[in-house]
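User: Run a structure prediction on this.
Assistant: Running it now.
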Amino acid sequence: MIYDISQPLFECDVFPGDSRPLKNQVMSMENGELYNLTELSMCVHNGTHVDAPCHFIRGGKGIDRIPLEKFIGPAYVAEHDGDVSAQDAEMILKKAAGSGLGAEKKILIKGKTTVTEEAAEIFAKAGLDLIGNESQTVGPEDAPMRVHLILLQEEVVLLEGVRLDAVREGAYLLNCAPINLTDTDGSPCRAVLMDIEEKSVEI
């Protein structure tokens, strides 16, 4: 089964202060024109999106320089509510590793949650490819910078604004490949999870 864990772009949540995505119908068959043509204007951090290191790190890599392997592969969905402590982070990594599917490199956290600095340190030291959550920012909304720095300086991709209501805790295949935007600090993505079985995955 395939689970679409992305927000619809034009109805998406937007981080406070960011501009909303806008759609402009340039050409319309309803108006007697030969074809439909739409223009799009948006912040690259609208809706379900990924952050690149240069979002918070001067001279950091843009989204186009991040290997696609970071965005595609086995991932573990962990259910949690509230702040993620260092102990919580250790437990999440242990459960992910216990799946036997290599899912401990990509972690998605289901629930209304905030990754603390202490948890970010644990995730960064574990050498994650990616961490994702349902909020529009992985850290505290009123002060997200420190958590971003801890993770992005280790080139841990941040997948923000996913929707995991229909997904149970466990291991899946993740694809959240970004648009190939040259030298940008992030990109929207169509994030999906797919059911996997141990026998079908090569580790």
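The longest helix spans residues 86-97.
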